[in-house]
C-alpha cells in the first residue's frame, strides 16, 4: 500500500499487478525442464519462483482501493480464466497479456470478450506470433489495444533493447498504440522510446532494492520513477 501511494506521488498514471497462483502456472517438479539455470532466479524451480512472487488474491482489494484513492488506474495480468473472472469482480480498468502468454489464444480471447482495453507484451515473440495475438484480440471484441515492445532479459542491458522494433511495430500496426515494457535498470531506453512515439512505459517498481525480492534487481525505486516521469 505504501508503494502504491509512492508510485502515485512519483507521477505514474497506473499500477499493474500479476494475478495467478503457482499451481495454475506450472507443476511442482524438480525435473530439468522446471529448473531455472541462469539469471537472477538461477537455482530455483519454476514453482518456487512463482509461489514466492505471487500476489495474494486477498490483497488485491485493498491495493486497488488505495490506487483509487491515489487517482491511479489499476489493472493486472491474468494467467488463466479464474484470474480474469476474479479481476472482473474488481472492475479493473483493463488487462495485460504477459509476454509468455502471447501464444495463449484462449486466454487472449477470454480477456478480449470482457470489452476492456488490452495490453499485449511481446517479449520472446516473433512477428507472426505478435500478429496472431493482435488478430485474436480484435476478433474477440477488443476495441482498444496497446502492443508493448519488450526484451525478456532480467535485467535487460540497455544496448540490447532493440528500440528499432518500435518503429517496425508502428508500421505493422498503424491503428494501434505502441508502448515499451522496459526491464533495463536505467531510464535511457524509456526516454528514447518516448522520442520514438510510444504511448505507454511499463517499469517494475520497489520501495527499496536492498529489501530483495524476485524483481528487485531490475526495479526502480520511487525516486527513480519520479526522475523518469520528469525526464
- What is the gyration radius calculated from CA atoms? 17 Å
Judging from the principal axes of the Cα atoms, what is the shape?
globular
Unreliable runs, pLDDT <50, ≥5 residues? none
| Number of helical elements | 10
Biggest sheet statistics: 5 strands, parallel
Helix and strand composition category = alpha/beta
The strand line-up of the biggest sheet is: 3-4-5-6-7
For the secondary structure, the number of strands is 7
Mean pLDDT: 96
Helix content: 25-40%
How much of the polypeptide forms β-strand, as a percent range?
5-15%
Element-by-element helix/strand order: HEHHHEHEHEHEHEHEH
Distance between the termini: 26 Å
Outline the fold blueprint.
Blueprint: H1 2-10, E1 14-19, H2 22-25, H3 46-53, H4 60-69, E2 73-78, H5 81-89, E3 95-97, H6 105-112, E4 118-121, H7 127-139, E5 145-150, H8 164-172, E6 177-181, H9 188-195, E7 201-202, H10 222-230
Parallel strand pairs: 1-2, 3-4, 4-5, 5-6, 6-7
General description of the model:
The mean pLDDT is 96. The longest helix is centred in the middle third of the chain and has 13 residues, at 127-139. Helix 9 (188-195) links the parallel strand 6 and strand 7 (201-202). The chain is built from ten helices and seven strands. The two termini are 26 Å apart. Helix 1 packs parallel to helix 10 (222-230) and helix 6 (105-112) runs parallel beside helix 7. The strands form two sheets. It has a five-stranded parallel sheet, with helices on one face. By secondary structure, the protein is an alpha/beta fold. The protein is globular, with a radius of gyration of 17 Å. The chain has helices spanning 2-10, 22-25, 46-53, 60-69, 81-89, 105-112, 127-139, 164-172, 188-195, 222-230, and strands at residues 14-19, 73-78, 95-97, 118-121, 145-150, 177-181, 201-202. Helices cover 38% and strands 14% of the residues.
